[in-house]
Structure formats: C-alpha cells, structure tokens
Design a protein that fits this description.
The protein is α/β, with parallel strands linked by helices. The chain has four domains: about 190 residues, Rossmann fold, CATH 3.40.50; about 190 residues, Rossmann fold (3-Layer(aba) Sandwich), CATH 3.40.50.300; about 110 residues, Arc Repressor Mutant, subunit A, CATH 1.10.10.10; about 80 residues, DNA polymerase, domain 1 (Orthogonal Bundle), CATH 1.10.150.80. The chain contains 27 helices and 19 strands. Helix 2 runs parallel beside helix 3 and helix 23 crosses helix 25. The radius of gyration is 27 Å and the shape is globular. It starts with a helix and ends with a helix.
Length: about 600
C-alpha cells in the first residue's frame, strides 16, 4: 500500500498538501528529519501515515494533554489504532492500554515529554518495537523559543537508551535560525533532512486595527459573526475576565480560559469550545498548543503579542480545515510599553533582553506598516514573495488616498536633523507637538524653532506621519532597546525643497464599520458561494453536531467545515459520489455517508 492509498482510505484526500509527501518518504526511508511547517499545513499526516506503514510502534511526544486527546479521538473515529498515556488516565485505562500495546494492537502512542521520566514506562518501552519517535512542537526544546519546556531536553538521552535507535522526526510551526539549530542539536538528530515549508497561509486574511475602542470593535464583530467559531486573545487574566463578562452580558455564547482558573475549570471550558457548545472563547496565550479544532474562523488579538512568531502561531489556529479565517490584531501604542515592561522584568540576561527587544520592534513594525501584512510576515521568516501586495489583507484592502504631506514631513525631517540622530520617535513627536514633557524640559528643547511646529495636529497624527516617513524612506530608525531616528538622503531632498512628500493616507472608519469590512464578510469559501449554500450547510452542521453528541466527540472529528461546504455544493446522491468529496475517507464514507446523503435529499 502506498502513502496516497492510506491518505485516501483513512483521511479522504486524493493528493498531499505541499511538502507533506517529501517528509513522509524521508521517514519511510528510515531517515531522521526536521520539518518546520506552519500551523494548518498538515503536520500530523506527515507522521501518522508513516506510523501506520512502518512496523511496530510510533511514539508521539506532544506537549499538551488536550492535544493528545483530540488527535487520538480523530484517529480512533477513523478506526486507526491509537492511544494516549497521560496523567488523566485511570489505572484500569493504563493497564488496558499497556496490554494492547504489548499485544501489538496499537500503532500510534501519544505521550507527554514528562512521561519519559517514569521508570515503568521507560522499562516497558525498551521491550517494544519502536520504529519512529515523533517530537511535536519541537521548538519547546530551545530556550530561545517561545514555549520552552525543560522536559524536552531529556528526549535525546531517552531515545539513545533504547535497545535499537528508532527514526526521530521533529515538527514545529515556526522557528528562527537559532531555534532551528537548537532543535537539531538538542534532540540528537542524525544526518537529518530539514524541510522548511512555505509559511504563507492564503486562506487567512490578516488585518491590523489601530487606535480604536477595542471592546466596542469586538462586540460589533461578534454581532456580525454569530455563526462562526473564534478565539479572542488578551494579555492578562484580568483583561480576559473583563472581556468575558462584557461579551456574555451582551448575550453571546462565550467561555474563558487562563492560568488563574483551576485545572478542572480550564478543561471544562476547552471542551465546551472544542465540542461547539460555545462559539467564542476569550483566553490568554495559555490557551495555545492544545487547540486542534479545525473550524475556528477568526482569531482576534486584543493586544499586540510580544513577537511575530507567537502571533503567527496563534493566528494560524484559524482556518486549519483550509476554509477561510480572519486574523485581526487590535493595536495601541500603549501595548508597546506593556511588552517592554514584561521584557525588563521577566528576562534576566542582557543578550536575551536585546533579542526580545529586537523581536518586539519587528512586531511593532508589523502593527504600524501600511504595506502588505502578508509580505511583512513572510519576509520575517526569510521568504521573499514575488509580489509586493497580496491584495488579500487589511492593508491591501484599505481605502487610501494619495496626498501631498510635504508640510508635515518637512518639519519632521528638520527636527530629526536638528537632533543629530541622538533621540527617538517619542521625543521628536513631543517637540513637534509642543509638549512640556520632562525630557523636553531636561534638554531645553522647548527653545527650538521647531517646538510646536505641528501643534495643530493630534499626537496620533504626528506619530503616524513620523512612522510613515520611516516607511517611505525619509527617515531611518535604528535597532535596539532605544531606537533613534536619523535623516536619509531622500529626507534631505525634502528638507532642501527638492522633493515633495507624497504619501498614502488611510481613510479612517468607525469601529462598527471597521468590524465588517468588505472582504471580512467572506461571502465565498474558495469557489463556493457561502450565502447561497448557507441553508444546506446549516442542516449538515446540525446533523454533524447531533452525531458528535451521540458519540461524545468534537464535531470537526466527523467532518470539517470545508468538507460540509463541499457536500453542500456538490450534493452527492450516492456513496460513490460522496467518496469524491475531500475529507471523506473509506471508513467515514460508510459510517456517516448514508445519513448525510439523506440530509441532502431533503433539498431536492
């Protein structure tokens, strides 16, 4: 049997996504590999298919119990022999699962890295034929990553202590060059092949909303997306609780999740969200890697995250089924001060502080750029797309007008030139605004000719113009904890009156309008007309929910939203026609196919 046969039989797809097949072939050839693939790229299939084809057992080391359960539920629902072993298993469950492993009736075993420290588990596994060890979320091994887990550092020694070394495969969604090297070294990979998949997620729509009433925006957005499932990330427990209370008071189906809640309360809320009993969950980033829910349609960040890696991983939890997803970041300059404070009080080495600050600066750049957001993200991860505008992000869609801004840019350039490149954006803005700040008084800058030169503009307008002058090349900003501004050759041309500063100016919207822009309504899903097919989709979704409740599994385990939309469009009349729908494997075809065909017949 070939990998494509298993792909079709068990998972219902006739072809692999980009990058999957090469990883699978590498593991089947008994060679180590490191695969860096974005969230939603289908990493799980890359090790599940080899796990079914290789002799013996595949051991999957996964960081979160909830993630194990979701993946095992999905596999078992497709009659794939998989189990998980973790602290939530009862003694009888553990005894039964070890017995099944010993009898050779299990192919995929999910565990947490901490389980490797259990002497009985280690002794037992040393007697079993392990062909493949998979390390999911492998970036956790690096202190330079954003989810460091000390227990990951013991994996390499545990693998080497096995009587026969298995193939080792490491997977992660995002990684800088430093984290990548740590994974290769600390996980003990040998002669590994390294795969870095394309980071672009074309089904995701990215948007930054600046300086708005955030709560008002969220309530407006939820009102226009009542049927969709989504996650709202907030920076603190206090903010999560406040938002949850406000959203619930407005009548929305909402839950919350943060580290201040009990383990039982967190588990209950996550299950309510996973099983579609609530539509939206408000959470801190503690609600993270354990989310395998495929039908999340939007991610809203209430505050700016600390770096692009964290943001892209969290935003990537939308649209994992290949359907449309929207990723919105609500940004205020105050977010920068909060993140700087956290860096200064949580990072103890100068080198690490500098690195964290540099990453924060890149995150701020994303929030403030007026260029293509998708290109900005891809460039951060080392990709150089041929296009400069994707046409599918908030900035590319933003209504803008070109205006001659020379009367603003020239005094900005003059002020920066006067300061001789020794000060940053905040002080430049204070001087131009005419602010009597402590630093202005300390240096006597209230006596400068340019003091108050732009006093008829708001502080936000001045800052936006300074930032845009950097982006347009009139100014340049240094790196580091205290970035300073200096004048460029082009800026000197404007200052000398030899160039006009023509800039694109965004048309500002009210929060209610900004919450539902033209493309955010998502009237189509790929080539599918969502508006026309919504009644059929809703019937199929209700049937899926009822079946899931009967089996006590998450609805997306039965079929993804993308598969339901395809059914609604194609309206298969027979099982043979149903088998051609993406996501309908042989087992699910016969288990669920007749009921979904019957539901579709009601529309004939």
């Amino acid at each position: 049997m070939q990998p494509t046969d298993i792909l079709k039989q068990y998972f219902g797809y006739s072809s692999f996504r980009p990058g999957q097949e090469e990883v699978i072939k590498t593991l089947l050839a008994r060679r180590d590999c490191l695969a860096i693939m974005p969230t939603g790229a289908g990493k799980s299939l890359c090790f599940q298919i080899p796990g079914l084809m290789l002799p013996g057992i595949t051991l999957i080391i996964s960081p979160l119990i909830s993630l194990m359960k979701d993946q095992v539920d999905t596999l078992v629902n497709q009659e794939i022999p998989a189990v998980y072993i973790n602290s939530q298993c009862t003694w009888d469950e553990l005894r039964q699962r070890f017995s099944e492993i010993r009898a050779g009736r299990v192919k995929l075993v999910y565990i947490s890295p901490e389980r490797l420290q259990n002497e009985f588990f280690t002794s037992f596994m040393q007697t079993q034929p392990i062909s493949l060890v998979v390390i999911d979320e492998a970036h956790c091994v690096s202190q330079w990553g954003h989810d460091f887990r000390p227990s990951y550092c013991a994996i390499s020694a545990w693998v080497e202590a096995l009587p026969r070394r298995p193939v080792v495969a490491a997977f992660t969604a995002t990684a800088t060059e430093k984290v990548k090297k740590d994974m290769q070294q600390l996980l003990g990979l040998r002669e590994e092949r390294v795969f870095v998949g394309g980071f672009d997620r074309p089904n995701l729509y990215f948007r930054v909303v600046r300086d708005t009433d955030r709560t008002r925006f969220i309530l407006a957005y939820l009102a226009s997306h009542r049927e969709d499932s989504g996650i709202i990330y907030a920076a603190t427990r206090k903010e999560v609780d406040r938002l949850y209370t406000e959203i619930r008071h407005q009548g929305f189906s909402v839950g919350r999740y943060h580290a201040g809640m009990s383990d039982e309360a967190r588990k209950k809320e996550q299950e309510r969200f996973t099983y579609d009993k609530i539509q939206v969950i408000v959470a801190t980033n503690a609600f993270g890697m354990g989310i395998d829910k495929s039908n999340v349609r939007y991610i809203i960040h209430y505050q700016m995250p600390k770096n692009i890696e964290s943001y892209y991983q969290e935003a990537g939890r939308a649209g994992r089924d290949g359907g449309p997803g929207e990723c919105i970041l609500l940004f205020s300059r105050q977010d920068i001060m909060i993140q700087k404070y956290l860096i200064e009080h949580s990072v103890h080495t100068v080198e690490q502080q500098q690195r964290e600050q540099d990453m924060l600066n890149r995150m701020v750049g994303y929030c403030e750029t007026r260029g293509c957001l998708r290109q900005y993200i891809l460039s951060y991860f080392g990709e150089r797309p041929e296009w400069t505008a994707c046409g599918k992000c908030g900035n590319c869609d933003q209504e803008v007008v070109e205006e001659d801004q020379t009367n603003i840019v020239r005094p900005i350039c003059a002020c920066v030139d006067e300061l001789k490149g020794r000060f940053g954006m905040t002080l430049v803005c204070d001087i131009l605004k005419g602010s009597q700040s402590a630093k202005v008084k300390q240096y006597g800058f209230q006596r400068l000719v340019l003091f108050g030169a732009l006093s008829n503009f708001t502080g936000r307008e001045i800052r936006d113009s300074v930032r845009q002058s950097v982006l347009d090349g009139y100014l340049q900003q240094s790196e580091g904890k205290y970035p300073v501004l200096s004048l460029t050759a082009l800026g000197r041309q404007v200052l000398a009156g030899k160039e006009r500063a023509i800039q694109k100016v965004a048309v500002r919207q009210e929060p209610e309008l900004a919450a539902v822009p033209k493309k955010a309504k998502k009237k189509t899903v790929g080539t599918i007309d969502e508006e026309a097919l919504r009644p059929i989709f809703d019937v199929l979704r209700q049937l899926r929910l009822e079946l899931a409740q009967d089996e006590n599994i998450p609805p997306f385990v039965i079929f993804s939203d993308a598969t339901l939309w395809a059914m609604a469009q194609e309206r298969p009349h027979t099982l043979e026609e149903m088998s051609n729908i993406k996501g309908v494997g042989a087992f699910k075809l016969h288990k669920y196919g007749p009921q979904f065909i019957e539901a579709l017949h009601s529309f004939e």
